[in-house]
Write a structure and sequence with these properties.
Strands 1, 2, 3, 6, 7, 8, 14, 15 and 16 form a nine-stranded mixed β-sheet that branches. Strands 10-11-12-9-13 form a five-stranded antiparallel β-sheet. 31% of the residues lie in helices and 28% in strands. The chain is of the alpha+beta class.
Length: 369
């Protein structure tokens, strides 16, 4: 059984330690201290050499006493902004913030589930496979911690990521690839009132390109978005420069190639039409993953959830998670729901029952693994 008082106190303690992306250091050390008291061996990699955080990924290993293949469990250390000075409010059903910040359940609910789940097994002398816990930095905004994780330190070939908003029982087996598309358009300045015909408006070029572009929901597997546009000097100057930050995602890597090429082509065609210059850079921080419905890990998670009386189901997501990078690097990994709701907003919340059930889920999966 979950020690509800302990788990709630620990969760509230964790979310009140600031850990916005790039500043996870104090929380990482707090977690290391807990893990050492639980008998874990602690390792650190050098991910901060590739991404400017004030700490590295935390890797913790423990032999659970069962002769079985090792299992990776993972959650991320960082939160989005505004995540400083979180003041939790515990109601009869939900935990929320005071409304001035996020709550930080994304992903400290996942961390709490892992810790309490393992304690349940330890305290009841229930054997489980060797576990490798990976707590990543900088997941928000690019999955950077798992992207730069030292995979030579990981023996597991199967993994559970505790980082989804569904209730315990949700099993995500498919997630998208993402392309970041950054565009610079260079036009030509001129006086907008005296000789506008001598200029080339970078804003007009951008507008032409975007007008020709397929955006938002492309199909059931693919999305695309223009997120930010910056440019211009003054209303009396024909705009010489514009920068655009966009993205495309798809559950199918080939479809993503097509969508990104389409967007790049629209910018290039518009620049050619008006005589402007354009530079398009594309970065794919993670690729799509797809774990089979009948994979042993999926069946294990389903059986464990059903044994607990949870509705177990598989689904796909439009968001990236560390699950993407684990699959790309040779682990069969799935993402599990831990009950977080309205993540990345001031209305973020988690139901107390979902917090506790997520720990039961972790314990049951490891017991059966």
């Amino acid at each position: 059984m979950v020690n509800q008082q302990r788990m709630l106190a620990e969760f509230l303690e964790m979310i009140q330690i600031d850990s916005e992306t790039k500043n996870e250091g104090p929380f990482a050390q707090h977690l290391i201290d807990k893990l050492m008291k639980m008998g874990f061996e602690i390792l650190r990699d050098t991910a901060s050499k590739d991404f400017p955080s004030n700490t590295d990924n935390v890797i913790a290993k423990k032999n659970g006493g069962k002769a079985s293949a090792p299992m990776l469990l993972s959650a991320h250390l960082d939160t989005v902004s505004p995540g400083k000075g979180i003041k939790p409010v515990v109601g009869e059903v939900y935990i929320t913030s005071d409304g001035t910040t996020i709550l930080g359940g994304d992903d400290k609910a996942g961390i709490a589930a892992i810790l309490e789940g393992i304690r349940i097994l330890d305290e009841n002398h229930i054997p489980y496979p060797p576990v490798e816990l990976v707590f990543t930095i900088a997941e928000e905004g690019g999955l950077n911690g798992s992207r730069y994780l030292d995979y030579s330190l990981i023996a597991s070939k199967r993994g559970l990521v505790l980082d989804s908003g569904g209730k315990p029982g949700e099993i995500i087996i498919q997630g998208p690839a993402q392309d970041r598309i950054n565009v610079t358009i260079k036009g030509k300045p001129s006086h907008a009132g005296v000789c506008p015909e001598d200029g080339i408006s970078a804003i007009q070029v951008a507008a032409e390109a975007i007008n020709q572009m397929s955006l938002l929901r492309i199909d059931s597997e693919t999305t695309a978005n223009i997120g930010m546009i910056h440019g211009g000097i003054a209303t009396n100057i024909v705009c010489p420069d514009v920068t655009i930050n966009a993205e495309a995602r798809s559950l199918d890597n080939a479809k993503l190639d097509i969508q990104t090429a389409h967007m790049k082509g629209c910018f290039e065609a518009a620049a050619a039409k008006f005589g402007a210059q354009v530079e398009v850079t594309i970065d794919r921080p993670y690729v799509a993953f797809n774990v089979a419905e009948d994979h042993a890990l999926v069946l294990l998670a389903k059986e464990a959830c059903e044994a607990l009386g949870f509705k177990a189901y598989t689904t796909k997501t439009g968001g990236g998670s560390d699950t993407n990078n684990y699959n790309e690097n040779g682990l069969d990994a799935i993402n599990l729901g831990v009950g977080m709701e309205k993540a990345h907003t001031l209305e973020e919340r988690i139901a107390l029952i979902d917090l506790y059930n997520s720990a039961l889920m972790v314990a049951e999966i490891l017991k059966r693994a």
